Amino acid sequence: MGIDLIVPVKRPAEGKSRLRGAVVTEQHAALVLALAQDTLSAVTSADGVRRVLVVAADPASVADLTELGVEIVAEPSRGGLNAALRYGEALLRRDSPTGVVGALQADLPALRTEDLTAALAEAAGRRAFVADRQGTGTTLLLAAAGRPLEPLFGGGSALAHTGSGAIPLTIAAESLRSDVDTADDLAHVCTLGVGKRTSALLGTPCVVM
Predict the structure, then answer these.
(1) Which of 52, 103, 147, 207 is found 20 to 30 A from 166 (Cα to Cα)?
(2) What pTM was computed for the model?
(3) Given CA atoms 24, 10, 199, 185 in this order, what sign does their dihedral have?
Protein backbone atom coordinates (compact mmCIF):
# COMPACT_ATOMS: atom_id res chain seq x y z
CA MET A 1 0.00 0.00 0.00
CA GLY A 2 1.35 3.43 -0.95
CA ILE A 3 1.81 6.15 1.64
CA ASP A 4 0.18 9.57 1.34
CA LEU A 5 2.23 12.47 2.69
CA ILE A 6 1.15 15.91 3.85
CA VAL A 7 3.72 18.69 3.48
CA PRO A 8 2.86 22.04 5.11
CA VAL A 9 4.26 25.14 3.41
CA LYS A 10 4.09 28.66 4.77
CA ARG A 11 3.97 31.76 2.58
CA PRO A 12 7.62 31.96 1.37
CA ALA A 13 8.03 35.64 2.20
CA GLU A 14 6.99 34.98 5.80
CA GLY A 15 8.43 31.52 6.43
CA LYS A 16 11.70 30.56 8.09
CA SER A 17 12.13 33.66 10.24
CA ARG A 18 15.24 32.24 11.94
CA LEU A 19 16.85 31.80 8.54
CA ARG A 20 16.67 35.49 7.70
CA GLY A 21 20.14 36.86 6.96
CA ALA A 22 21.41 33.62 5.45
CA VAL A 23 20.88 35.28 2.05
CA VAL A 24 20.14 38.88 1.12
CA THR A 25 16.66 40.01 2.12
CA GLU A 26 15.42 40.08 -1.48
CA GLN A 27 16.21 36.37 -1.87
CA HIS A 28 14.68 35.08 1.37
CA ALA A 29 11.35 34.07 -0.15
CA ALA A 30 13.12 32.42 -3.08
CA LEU A 31 15.28 30.43 -0.66
CA VAL A 32 12.27 29.20 1.33
CA LEU A 33 10.60 28.11 -1.90
CA ALA A 34 13.79 26.42 -3.13
CA LEU A 35 14.02 24.38 0.08
CA ALA A 36 10.47 23.14 -0.49
CA GLN A 37 11.08 22.43 -4.17
CA ASP A 38 14.12 20.28 -3.47
CA THR A 39 12.35 18.48 -0.64
CA LEU A 40 9.34 17.66 -2.79
CA SER A 41 11.47 16.65 -5.76
CA ALA A 42 13.00 13.91 -3.60
CA VAL A 43 9.68 12.95 -2.01
CA THR A 44 7.84 12.41 -5.28
CA SER A 45 10.66 10.12 -6.47
CA ALA A 46 10.68 7.91 -3.38
CA ASP A 47 9.45 4.33 -3.53
CA GLY A 48 6.28 3.80 -1.53
CA VAL A 49 4.99 7.38 -1.76
CA ARG A 50 1.65 7.40 -3.56
CA ARG A 51 0.32 10.91 -3.09
CA VAL A 52 1.74 14.20 -1.84
CA LEU A 53 -0.59 16.90 -0.55
CA VAL A 54 0.86 20.36 0.08
CA VAL A 55 -1.17 22.35 2.60
CA ALA A 56 -0.19 25.92 1.86
CA ALA A 57 -0.82 29.18 3.66
CA ASP A 58 -0.94 30.90 0.27
CA PRO A 59 -1.39 28.43 -2.61
CA ALA A 60 -0.78 31.09 -5.28
CA SER A 61 2.69 31.84 -3.91
CA VAL A 62 3.76 28.20 -4.23
CA ALA A 63 1.85 27.28 -7.39
CA ASP A 64 5.09 26.27 -9.13
CA LEU A 65 5.25 23.22 -6.84
CA THR A 66 2.54 21.55 -8.93
CA GLU A 67 5.21 20.96 -11.59
CA LEU A 68 6.63 18.34 -9.23
CA GLY A 69 3.43 16.30 -9.29
CA VAL A 70 2.01 17.38 -5.94
CA GLU A 71 -1.47 18.62 -5.05
CA ILE A 72 -1.91 21.97 -3.31
CA VAL A 73 -4.75 23.02 -1.01
CA ALA A 74 -5.20 26.09 1.17
CA GLU A 75 -4.64 25.57 4.87
CA PRO A 76 -7.37 26.52 7.37
CA SER A 77 -7.33 30.17 8.33
CA ARG A 78 -6.63 29.40 11.98
CA GLY A 79 -5.01 26.76 14.11
CA GLY A 80 -1.37 26.69 13.05
CA LEU A 81 0.78 23.82 11.83
CA ASN A 82 -0.92 20.91 13.60
CA ALA A 83 -4.35 22.07 12.48
CA ALA A 84 -3.09 22.31 8.90
CA LEU A 85 -1.80 18.74 9.11
CA ARG A 86 -5.06 17.45 10.55
CA TYR A 87 -6.91 19.18 7.73
CA GLY A 88 -4.66 17.55 5.14
CA GLU A 89 -5.15 14.21 6.86
CA ALA A 90 -8.93 14.56 6.70
CA LEU A 91 -8.78 15.25 2.96
CA LEU A 92 -6.58 12.23 2.31
CA ARG A 93 -8.75 9.99 4.49
CA ARG A 94 -11.79 10.75 2.34
CA ASP A 95 -10.19 8.80 -0.50
CA SER A 96 -8.25 6.25 1.53
CA PRO A 97 -9.73 5.77 5.01
CA THR A 98 -7.58 2.72 5.79
CA GLY A 99 -4.34 3.97 4.27
CA VAL A 100 -1.11 5.23 5.80
CA VAL A 101 -0.82 9.01 6.13
CA GLY A 102 2.29 10.92 7.09
CA ALA A 103 3.51 14.47 7.67
CA LEU A 104 6.85 15.67 6.32
CA GLN A 105 8.59 19.00 6.86
CA ALA A 106 9.21 21.12 3.76
CA ASP A 107 12.74 22.20 4.66
CA LEU A 108 14.83 19.12 3.81
CA PRO A 109 16.79 20.25 0.71
CA ALA A 110 19.42 17.51 1.10
CA LEU A 111 16.79 14.75 1.24
CA ARG A 112 17.77 11.51 -0.50
CA THR A 113 14.95 9.37 -1.83
CA GLU A 114 16.65 6.27 -0.44
CA ASP A 115 16.62 7.72 3.10
CA LEU A 116 12.90 8.42 2.93
CA THR A 117 12.20 5.01 1.40
CA ALA A 118 14.21 3.29 4.13
CA ALA A 119 12.35 5.19 6.87
CA LEU A 120 8.98 4.19 5.43
CA ALA A 121 10.14 0.58 5.31
CA GLU A 122 11.34 0.63 8.93
CA ALA A 123 8.03 2.07 10.09
CA ALA A 124 6.31 -0.91 8.46
CA GLY A 125 2.80 0.48 8.91
CA ARG A 126 3.29 1.52 12.54
CA ARG A 127 2.81 5.01 13.96
CA ALA A 128 6.40 6.25 13.96
CA PHE A 129 8.55 9.34 13.54
CA VAL A 130 12.01 10.55 12.58
CA ALA A 131 13.65 13.03 14.93
CA ASP A 132 15.78 15.86 13.58
CA ARG A 133 19.56 15.74 13.92
CA GLN A 134 19.41 17.61 17.25
CA GLY A 135 17.03 14.95 18.57
CA THR A 136 14.38 17.41 19.73
CA GLY A 137 12.24 18.11 16.66
CA THR A 138 10.43 15.91 14.17
CA THR A 139 10.96 15.82 10.41
CA LEU A 140 8.64 12.91 9.54
CA LEU A 141 5.59 11.54 11.35
CA LEU A 142 3.69 8.49 10.12
CA ALA A 143 0.30 7.18 11.21
CA ALA A 144 -0.50 3.51 11.46
CA ALA A 145 -2.74 2.24 8.67
CA GLY A 146 -6.22 3.69 9.11
CA ARG A 147 -5.30 5.31 12.42
CA PRO A 148 -5.06 9.02 13.39
CA LEU A 149 -1.84 10.89 12.65
CA GLU A 150 -2.00 12.89 15.92
CA PRO A 151 0.56 15.56 14.97
CA LEU A 152 2.28 17.28 17.89
CA PHE A 153 4.75 19.48 16.05
CA GLY A 154 6.30 22.44 17.84
CA GLY A 155 8.96 22.79 20.51
CA GLY A 156 10.09 19.42 21.82
CA SER A 157 7.98 17.48 19.32
CA ALA A 158 10.23 14.41 19.40
CA LEU A 159 9.50 13.94 23.10
CA ALA A 160 5.81 14.74 22.56
CA HIS A 161 5.49 12.19 19.77
CA THR A 162 7.27 9.55 21.84
CA GLY A 163 4.95 10.27 24.75
CA SER A 164 1.93 9.84 22.50
CA GLY A 165 3.05 6.33 21.53
CA ALA A 166 4.84 6.95 18.25
CA ILE A 167 7.92 4.80 17.66
CA PRO A 168 11.19 6.72 17.11
CA LEU A 169 12.85 5.28 14.02
CA THR A 170 16.51 4.37 14.41
CA ILE A 171 17.67 4.54 10.80
CA ALA A 172 20.60 6.95 10.32
CA ALA A 173 19.04 8.76 7.32
CA GLU A 174 21.04 11.95 7.86
CA SER A 175 19.45 13.73 4.93
CA LEU A 176 15.99 13.07 6.39
CA ARG A 177 17.03 14.36 9.81
CA SER A 178 18.62 17.58 8.50
CA ASP A 179 15.94 20.23 8.35
CA VAL A 180 16.85 23.87 7.87
CA ASP A 181 15.80 26.44 10.46
CA THR A 182 18.98 28.51 10.84
CA ALA A 183 22.03 29.61 8.86
CA ASP A 184 24.05 26.91 10.63
CA ASP A 185 21.53 24.30 9.46
CA LEU A 186 21.87 25.62 5.92
CA ALA A 187 25.64 25.30 6.08
CA HIS A 188 25.26 21.75 7.36
CA VAL A 189 22.99 20.58 4.54
CA CYS A 190 25.42 22.00 2.00
CA THR A 191 28.03 19.59 3.35
CA LEU A 192 25.61 16.76 2.58
CA GLY A 193 24.72 18.04 -0.86
CA VAL A 194 21.48 19.86 -1.59
CA GLY A 195 19.07 19.82 -4.50
CA LYS A 196 19.62 21.83 -7.64
CA ARG A 197 17.26 24.69 -6.79
CA THR A 198 18.81 25.47 -3.42
CA SER A 199 22.28 25.07 -4.86
CA ALA A 200 21.55 27.40 -7.76
CA LEU A 201 20.13 30.07 -5.45
CA LEU A 202 23.12 29.89 -3.11
CA GLY A 203 25.53 29.92 -6.03
CA THR A 204 27.62 27.13 -4.53
CA PRO A 205 28.49 23.76 -6.08
CA CYS A 206 27.00 21.65 -3.31
CA VAL A 207 24.72 19.43 -5.37
CA VAL A 208 25.23 15.73 -4.80
CA MET A 209 21.73 14.52 -5.67
Answers:
(1) 52
(2) 0.94
(3) positive
